[in-house]
Design a protein that fits this description.
Layout lengths: L2 H19 L1 H21 L7 H20 L6 H20 L1 H8 L9 H14 L3 E8 L4 E6 L17 E6 L10 H13 L4 E4 L11 H8 L9 E3 L9 H10 L3 E2 L3 E7 L2 E7 L7 H11 L7 E5 L16 E4 L18 H5 L6 E6 L1 E5 L18 E8 L12
Parallel strand pairs: 1-13, 3-4, 4-5, 5-6, 8-9, 9-10, 10-12
Antiparallel strand pairs: 2-11, 3-13, 7-8, 11-12
Helix pairs in contact: 1-2, 1-3, 2-3, 2-4, 2-5, 3-4, 4-6, 7-8, 8-9
């Protein structure tokens, strides 16, 4: 029996098991396992001393997904280190290496066959480690034509005491507790958020993966935020809908206020802030968000923030209703050129949905966080995860009346 036969047999076994769970899960497993299996088999014999690793990595992919059929829970550190992380790196590299595999399948000797694997090693580093950032956003109500990226609103001039005090916000979004986001890693993110002493911590959804739909797991990961009682608010993301009760109980244990189509006003050292938390919906988004705006009108003199998981819904927020919308969902585009200073991502090539950073539309602004974690494509590549403190320098809107409270 050849290595190719063994890889194909492992693939068939896991796929057959996946279809016993559901047709949708079976289709997902076929897609996720096919690149490591087909590309690995095509490139076997072309990677020199690394050839023996191909079968190990193919089996690791099968074990990673097969484990979900047996016990859908967070894996131990040894399992993640020896199985999940190498498997997901190889799955991503196999996808990138598809042109080389096609050349090999057609009988050509692929050149630089190591390149996609090396690139994905860099991506793996970006997936496992996050650089902290400070982001200054100027909210002065200037008009922006259409919906477009708005780097002009990112204030890099530096601020003096005379400019007043910003509202300091830490946004936590899309941690996706799973292979790359352990409980300890998310606890560390929350601990650093507490140390920054922000006015607000705002959680914009997608806490879990299929591995982490457990109240104790999520509550333990968020536990450091209990020290910021009255300053932590959240909305749902699409993955949270798979286990609403888990999210709600975990938030409740840690004193986090979940806003499901609700609004409130919080007094901060930077002035009053009105927070509108929108639930995640796929259909009739314009009607949903228009209804929220009508139910919870602006409070004069308060900075108005919307928590809206999907930035694709920003265009449906009624014009002029949001000083700033905070979103996640896109993981910053996840694959792109952000690491070398360019804004372009694969997501921006295939979609008109804002992918990362600050966007403007009329007088409204949208900040799309690159997310603390990710899900879907196995690793990040050229788009690092984000762990930032947002400093919101805002001016009360003259067209709305009212002044900020002292």
């Amino acid at each position: 029996m050849t290595a190719n036969d063994i890889a194909l047999g492992a693939w068939a076994l896991v796929v057959a098991g996946a279809f016993t769970r559901s047709m949708a899960y079976g289709g997902l497993v076929i897609f996720e396992l096919s690149f490591p299996m087909l590309v690995g088999n095509a490139l076997r014999g072309h990677l020199g001393p690394f050839d023996p690793l191909i079968l190990y990595l193919q089996i690791a992919n099968c074990l990673h997904l097969g484990y979900l059929l047996v016990r859908p829970s967070l894996r131990s550190i040894p399992f993640r280190a020896l199985v999940s992380i190498p498997a997901l790196w190889f799955a991503a590299a196999s996808f990138v290496a598809t042109p080389w595999a096609l050349a090999a399948a057609l009988g050509y000797e692929p050149e630089l066959v190591w390149l996609p694997f090396a690139l994905c090693l860099l991506g793996l580093a970006q997936t496992l480690f996050t650089r902290r950032e400070f982001v200054d956003i100027r909210l002065d109500g200037t008009h922006v034509d259409g919906l477009r990226r708005h780097p002009e609103g990112l204030d890099r001039r530096g601020k003096r005491e005379a400019d007043g005090r910003p509202v300091k916000v830490v946004q936590i979004t899309d941690p996706h507790l799973g292979p790359f986001m352990s409980v300890a890693r998310l606890r560390s993110i929350c601990t650093r958020a507490v140390a920054d002493d922000p006015d607000l911590v705002l959680i914009t959804g997608d806490l879990m993966t299929m591995e982490s739909e457990d109240i104790d797991v999520v509550a333990r990961a968020l536990e450091p935020l209990t020290r910021l009682s009255g300053r932590v608010f959240a909305c749902h993301g699409n993955h949270d809908h798979a286990a609403r009760a888990v999210v709600e109980r975990a938030f409740e244990r840690n004193g986090i206020r979940l806003l499901i189509d609700e609004a409130l006003v919080v007094r901060t050292a930077g002035g009053p802030v009105q927070i509108v938390g929108a639930d995640f919906v796929w259909r009739e988004r314009a009607e949903h968000l228009r209804g929220l705006a009508e139910r919870f009108p602006r409070v004069p003199g308060a900075l108005r923030l919307w928590l809206l998981h999907d930035p694709g819904a920003f265009r449906y927020v009624p014009d002029g209703d949001a000083d700033l919308v905070l979103s996640g969902h896109t993981h910053g585009g996840q694959v792109g050129l952000v690491s070398i200073g360019l804004p372009y991502t694969f997501f921006s090539l295939v979609s008109s949905i804002p992918d990362h950073g600050l966007w403007g539309r009329g007088r409204d602004r949208l900040y799309v966080h690159r997310s603390n974690g990710h899900y879907g494509f196995p690793i990040r590549l050229g788009v690092p995860a984000e762990e930032s403190v947002l400093r919101l320098w805002w001016t009360p809107r003259s067209d709305l009346g009212g002044c900020p409270a002292p």
